[in-house]
């Protein structure tokens, strides 16, 4: 796969030794370099796998090796020292690979032949080390090695910045920007205890059983990463004898994939809703219309034509709601800041509310698609007026206990037994309704990534809550200040 190792031989007779090796040696390529003058230049040419420094006392061996170290901290260096021309202590201090004392008349070609296996092994080890270093520096994954005490021994450059910001912030507020900031630390030094306990338990299981952990799905850790996901795989880190030294792990950010999966899941749910509407809700009025048409042909009674007209109007309403369901279900990809109070009032003006009253108790600005948010509010308000009567009061405000908002009324409310199904397609207590209004509400919420649920309002009516909403001012703002009342049409220009 590779050519023979290239050795830079440095010594007073370097050219002669290189020529002699060329005539009789094998398995190495030997280049000669004069001490203190040619070393840096020859190293700069590249392709050198090891340096043999023949120190006979005629030149400064230490300065020569320092020049090698200026070029590369990891390039293997072998010292042949005549007597104590270069001391073992000095050689060790300079990171010399091998130190051999020789006589002045030792055959240098034979000595190089003896060094060949060592040089070949060191070249292979160095190549593997540079491969690993290149991988850890460039791969867009969090790769890490931990010892048996779960201390990080080596990590990739991406590890501190895999998700979110360009640093990893520990619970005590310390920020880790580079791999060296992480080395020597355990998960308990870097992450919250509830996350660290599970990670270290996985480490122990891998070390003790020798079995891998494959693609474990986890939420990413860090500020504003609640909707970020990673997968982690771990395997035993073994030495050349098979003994387990620790764990090697790989963590990758799969947020985009997870979002795509969630989007597909929502689309499949919408398809199921459409199928239900087409197969059941549309079929019923169609069968009524066809049946009445038969009677009308036989009897000519206007009553049948009226029934047919009602069925066709219902089919038209259902088709409109199904189309709305399809449009509003697409994921909101570019939300903009929207004043919740303004959209609530705009929705109120569109709905036929009679003598109902709107109470706005929020100054919040949401990140949302304004058109779809208004559609959501229109449907909830329509539901409140339909079930609470013309005198119902509808309140829009902040949740307070978590990021989000609510729409509540003082009508009869939703029975507890129906709260799990109230958002289902076809759910309706009104014979005139399509049963898709609240399904559209949940679909719009899901398209924004919001949670939706129904509970009791303070007056016992229905309270629709929307959580996990991004925006400003979503604190507990149910105080009286800033509250306004609107009756249908009041204050409109």
From TrEMBL:
Keyword Kinase: yes
Superkingdom, natural source: Archaea
Keyword tags: Kinase, Phosphoprotein, Transferase, Two-component regulatory system
PROSITE patterns in the record: HIS_KIN, PAC
Annotated PAC domain residues: 211-266
Histidine kinase domain segment(s): 277-466
Pfam families hit by this protein: HATPase_c, HisKA, PAS_4
Alphabetized PANTHER family for the sequence: HISTIDINE KINASE 1, TWO-COMPONENT HISTIDINE KINASE
Name listed for the protein in its UniProt record: histidine kinase
Organism the protein comes from: Halosimplex pelagicum
Lineage of source species: Archaea, Methanobacteriati, Methanobacteriota, Stenosarchaea group, Halobacteria
């Amino acid at each position: 796969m590779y050519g023979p190792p290239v050795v830079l031989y440095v010594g007073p007779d370097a050219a002669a030794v290189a020529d002699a090796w060329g005539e009789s040696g094998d398995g190495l390529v030997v280049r000669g370099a004069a001490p203190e003058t040619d070393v840096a230049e020859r190293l700069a040419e590249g392709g050198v796998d090891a340096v043999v420094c023949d120190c006979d006392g005629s030149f400064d061996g230490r300065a020569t090796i320092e020049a090698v170290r200026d070029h590369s901290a990891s390039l293997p260096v072998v010292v042949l020292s005549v007597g104590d021309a270069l001391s073992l202590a000095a050689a060790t201090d300079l990171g010399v690979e091998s130190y051999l004392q020789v006589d002045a008349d030792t055959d240098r070609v034979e000595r190089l032949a003896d060094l060949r296996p060592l040089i070949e092994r060191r070249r292979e080890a160095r190549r593997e080390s540079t491969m690993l270093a290149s991988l850890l520096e460039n791969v867009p994954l969090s790769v890490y090695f931990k010892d048996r005490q779960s201390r990080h021994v080596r990590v990739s450059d991406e590890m501190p910045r895999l998700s979110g910001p360009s640093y990893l912030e520990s619970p005590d507020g310390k920020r880790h920007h580079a791999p060296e900031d992480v080395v020597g630390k355990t998960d308990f030094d870097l992450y919250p205890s509830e996350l660290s306990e599970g990670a270290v338990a996985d480490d122990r299981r891998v070390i003790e059983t020798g079995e891998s952990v494959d693609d474990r799905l986890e939420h990413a850790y860090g500020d504003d990463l609640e909707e970020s996901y990673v997968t982690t795989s771990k395997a035993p880190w073994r030495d050349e004898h098979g003994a387990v030294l620790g764990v090697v792990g790989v963590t990758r950010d799969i947020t985009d994939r997870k979002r795509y999966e969630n989007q597909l899941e929502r689309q499949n749910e919408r398809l199921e809703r459409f199928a239900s509407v087409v197969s059941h809700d549309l079929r019923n009025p169609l069968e009524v219309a066809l049946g009445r048409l038969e009677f009308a042909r036989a009897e000519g009674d206007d009553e049948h034509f009226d029934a047919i007209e009602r069925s066709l109007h219902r089919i038209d309403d259902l088709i409109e709601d199904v189309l709305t369901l399809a449009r509003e279900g697409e994921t909101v990809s570019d939300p903009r800041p929207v004043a919740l109070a303004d959209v609530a009032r705009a929705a109120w003006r569109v709905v036929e509310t009679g003598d109902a009253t709107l109470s706005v108790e929020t100054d919040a600005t949401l990140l949302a698609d304004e058109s779809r948010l208004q559609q959501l509010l229109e449907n909830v308000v329509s539901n409140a007026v339909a079930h609470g009567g013309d005198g119902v009061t509808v309140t829009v405000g902040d949740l307070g206990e978590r990021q989000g908002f609510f729409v509540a009324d003082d009508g009869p409310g939703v029975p507890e037994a129906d709260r799990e199904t109230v958002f289902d397609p076809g759910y309706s207590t009104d014979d005139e309704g399509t049963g898709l209004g609240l399904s559209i509400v949940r679909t719009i919420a899901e398209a924004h990534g919001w949670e939706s649920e129904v509970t009791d309002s303070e007056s016992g009516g229905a309270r629709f809550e929307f959580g996990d909403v991004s925006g400003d001012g979503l604190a507990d703002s149910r105080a009286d200040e800033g509250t306004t009342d609107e009756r249908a049409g009041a204050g409109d220009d």
